[in-house]
Amino acid sequence: MSLDRKFSDIDKKIDGILGNTERQIGRQYAKLNREIRHLLSDYFAEYETEGSLKYETMAKYNRMENFEKKIRDKIRKEGTTPIAREIRKGLRSSVTTAFDETKSGVEEAAGRKIQGTLKRDTINEIIQTPDSGLKLNDRLQRRRADVIDRVRETLTQGMTRGETYKQMTDRLKEELERDTEKAYRIVRTEGHRVQESGKHKCLEHAKNQGVKMKKWWDDAGDERVRDKHAHMGEKYSKDNAIPFEENFVNDVSGGEGPHPGRMGTAVDDIHCRCQMRIIIEDVE
Question: CA-CA distance, 252 to 264, in Å (whole number)?
Answer without folding.
Answer: 13
